[in-house]
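Narrative of activities, Objective 1.

The group set out to show that a structural description can be obtained from nothing but a protein's sequence at a throughput compatible with the screening campaign. Below is one input-output pair from the validation batch, recorded exactly as produced.
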Amino acid sequence: MLVFLLAFYVIPFAEMLRVSFGFWVNDPEEVKATGTWLYQYEKAFESARTMRALWRTFELSFISVLITFLLCYPVAVMMLWLGPRIRSAVLMVVFISLAASLIVRNYGWLVVLADQGPINNLFVGLGIFERSQRLVYNEGAIIVALVHYCMPFMILPIYGALIRIPPSQWEAPRTLGANSWTTLRTVILPLSAPGIFGGTTLCFAICASAFVTPLMLGSPSTAMISQVAAEQLLVQLNFPLGSAIIFILTAFTFALVFVYAVLVRRMLRVDV
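Output recorded for this entry:
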């Protein structure tokens, strides 16, 4: 695993970091005139479009992770009380969902959320909409697709943490008069914190780095930071600026995950 990470992550990332500091640029005279290694980062932070895309990326990621957690935690708890056959069937559905192509999923959402798609037809039939609404090519469609994609990555870590909790931890609060909700909130939720941390962190990283989903279900006005970086790298061929944007995204993501881990350790007193 260490060799794999070194060959396919550390070395390429170090190369992009080197390029972002101006050691290899399209226009050496431009960097020579600025006299700073941080020139590409200054350009990125001064770009209103880049900053809007960065803010939108983290905003949509937070919303998607929150919705995914609220949907998946009850599913993970429910799986504990299902019979072996039904539990195996649910796990099979989760694993099949992991095997489905991301592009196929996104095309499926394009069909479901289309102007004449089943969702619009249902809402019009129920009288919620007077006429078909545009449900795609906006932030809402991106969030729906991201939540759908992240659900297996949230369910499995939480279920893995819940299944390790001894049955006595569920029974002890009830013998002291606590109801099911109090037991879940005060005992089970903190004990499952490592699984929650793993699932939310993994889903946040997936959402923050999403490229295909916002490209297919969004629009130029809803571009996320990965699309801005890809435009600089693949269209403008501005490798220094594109590399700088990618490093900014990575640095902010690691910083947020670090702060999140510190807060979880201090507030819940668990080792994550």
